[in-house]
Sequence to fold (893 residues):
Amino acid sequence: MTASVPGGLPRDLHPVAWWVWAIGLAAAASFTTNPWLLLMLVGVAALVVAARRSDQPWARAFRLYLWVGLAIVVLRVLFRLLFGGSYPGTVLVDLPTVPLPSWVAGVTLLGPVTRESLLAGLYDGLRLAAIVVCIGAANALANPKRLLRSVPPALYEIGTAMVVAVSVLPQFADSVRRVRAAQALRAGATGRIGRLRRLLVPVLEDALERSLALAAGMDARGYGRAGAATPAQRRTTGALMLVGLCGVCVGVYAVLDSTAPRWLALPMLAAGLLLAVAGMVSAGRRVERTRYRPDPWSLPEMGVAAVGVLVAVTAWWVSEHQMLIAYPDLSVLPQVSLLALVGVLAGLLPAVASPRPAHLGVAA
Amino acid sequence: MIELRGVSFGYDDPDRPELVLDGVDLTIEEGELVVVSGPTGVGKSTLLGVVTGLVPRFSGGRLIGDLLLDGRSIVHTAPRDRAHVLGYVGQDPAAGFVTDTVEEELAYGMEQLGLPPETMRRRVEETLDLLGIADLRARDLRTLSGGQQQRVAIGSVLTMHPRLLVLDEPTSALDPTAAEDVLATLTRLVHDLGLSVLLAEHRLERVVPFADRLCVLPGDGRLLAGDPAELLASSPVVPPIIELGRAAGWRPLPLSVRDARRRARGLAERLVVPPPRARPQTSTALVARGLTVAHGRTVALREVDLELLGGRVTGLMGRNGAGKSSLLWALQGTGRRRSGSVLVAGEDPGSLDAAGRRGLVGLLPQTAADLLYLETVDAECAAGDDGTGAARALLERLAPGIPGDAHPRDLSEGQRLALALSLVLATRPPVLLLDEPTRGLDYAAKHVLADILRDLAVQGHAVLVATHDVEFVARAADEVVVLAEGEVVSAGPVQRVLAESPSFAPQVTKVLGPPWLLVDEVVTALESA
Fold:
């Protein structure tokens, strides 16, 4: 008998799968203001993170996102308290309205606090908080650098540049700390501008020198080696990409602007996307780079991504066909339908269906 | 294999009309370890850059001459298109890292070459074993020690299977043991894989025994290449062992400690043991008791007791990460300590503001350039002493003749160090701490720095200097403190502590045994004998 590990042997799931799952959850959150559903979405995200995050530094940031979410909710409700006067409904506390000068017409300060106004603030805040927490979950579950490394081969150079940019930030903080300590060791300008200059000049010089050293190092290690592509091939690829991207822009504009002619909307978007993909494939085919141990995309990845899509589609269906469930009336206790409940809870599947992360319990 | 033919290089700069390289010819054969030496700033890095293609692309300037690889000119080939033949490791390996884990860094170059995944996988494993870093494979590059980073950097170019490895001062930031490790690794690559190595180094004492050929840049743009023993007889920069050989009149010159020891049989007996160095009795300048410093969960210093005497230079040694910098910053008062006390002239520098601390303890940090922010030397001095002229006067004494309108970045490494030192000393603190001041200094500059520190001690300053450079400690220090794992493992007079430890013993001690530390002492004894 073989012992089976749920979700397979420990390994890191493809970062794109986690992002599809998290964006699905976030999309679901944007389709509803039902507090029960929103709280459940936050719970689902938190549970999956608790079950499947590694102990790398980026994984510890999830708590930060939870705090940000809480702050959003509190702020929304506070704003309703401060500026939400004259909202119709059951009055809870009858605060006096603070008279404001006429040039801020339209804004009321304080005034009677209604239950509906508070609840509207709470639901609204919860929705935004749930979206933030979902994105935070993706960040905690997927190594952001591996995500950048998974860009298609045609965009490899841009991907590397972004990875470098991400790595530079901690170095920059380190450099600021070092220079600040060093400048305290000598006398010098004490004015505000002078102090700023004492910090900025050495830090920028340091950053410049580092980037030159990095550029030289990358060049010496073959970054950006010329491929075998002929100039004509390169021009074709470039043209395909450019026309494709223009098409995508026009298409997106037409989709969002309902006054634009309809034939410009979806057909244009589709054509643009097609051209851009063709350009990338044509560029990617000529790239002579290979990837060391790429993240595999197999069943668990497909499952996790599919769950994200499923959650989003269910939430969209509920918002279209069960309006009262998705956007509950503020005067009554919100209800939950079986479909909405199952749709949200399906998001929990990756907690058991995905493999455990590879770097669990290994001190970094 | 690689051939430089009539290579000249200079900057199109009216201030620097002279050529850095002038008609240089050099051939590097298969499986040869070639060392380039010379004082700092003579163009060692430039020569390496010409070979890798980074000069003139990243430096500017004008290059004349030809570079041949197997008889084919590659002088116009970009560095990235030479990557499969030439592997380059820069001075600061951490600055060249592109990815964030050891394994990905090793694979990066191969990804650029477009090697098939199976080959990449195999070569990564082979290289991990070859360099003895298999246990580091998943580690974050930034958490590695200096020696480990250097080996990962070498590994990351080795995976591309280059035929020539070009290294710029691979051991300058390493402690003696880590440096030996890296050099042993390089020798093994040359012997086992037939790799050619071109390496620039001004701390010759460690690399000379491994070198097949030595190139000396005397400073006038010429390049002298030849057998190490012959060339060193007249070279301007030589390790102590060669100086000893020259003084004792040995021919041919011994290159390794082992050779020298054989030649020195009987020499030690003939020499009259010098009287112990004069140790003037002075008062205590700084007392630290039970000093403990922790960064998060790592303990940097554990219960360290230390006394610094006025008029003495104390060397602070220990491997990378032993807590040397933590100790200096804690003594200076900026570094937060968990427990323990520091007293300078009856006051705790930790309880004072920045200006108060400067008055008690001066600290020269590892990157002296962090202290400088103005456009001219005069402006820096004026800002450093509030216009009293004290800093300029100090600078004139430490490094005479620096023009006041020079930009601090245009100064040589040693001059810049002197400028930073005079800014720190402008408030006349009784205690002076220096963190790795010898990094990047050649023998001449190190002698000057040692004299400066001795001079400051004579004026009554208590000096503590953290360094990896054994020869520098032997020359400059009266006492030595050795740290390991944040604890003091040995402390005492320099003759005793350095002689006690095989890895910290200077070359002269290794050859002649204690109490000999310096060539100068032997020379004096030889003359009087």
